[in-house]
Design goal:
- The chain is α+β, with helices and mostly antiparallel strands and 66 residues long.
- It has 2 helices and 4 strands, in the order βαββαβ.
- The chain has a 4-stranded antiparallel sheet with strand order 2-3-1-4.
- A hairpin with a 2-residue loop joins β2 and β3.
- The protein is globular.
């Protein structure tokens, strides 16, 4: 069963970073959709929150995720 999770970001400065984060989140196993903006994301699917945060941190963009 799909669930919705919210992530909050600090430090996203460009559309390119938003695109990179969107791609990273969509590649996490279990993610069905991700709406990403400069200040956060709404992710739907079966993915665990820890996996979503790890995917964003792996980009090494100096973005704080909560």
């Amino acid at each position: 069963m799909a669930q919705q999770q919210s992530l909050r970001f600090k430090g996203v400065e460009s559309a390119e970073q938003v695109n990179q984060i969107t791609t990273a989140l969509m590649m996490v196993d279990g993610v069905e959709s991700a709406e990403v903006g400069r200040y956060g994301a709404e992710v739907e699917g079966r993915a665990k929150r820890d996996a979503l945060i790890k995917a964003v941190n792996a980009l090494k963009l100096k973005v704080k995720v909560s």
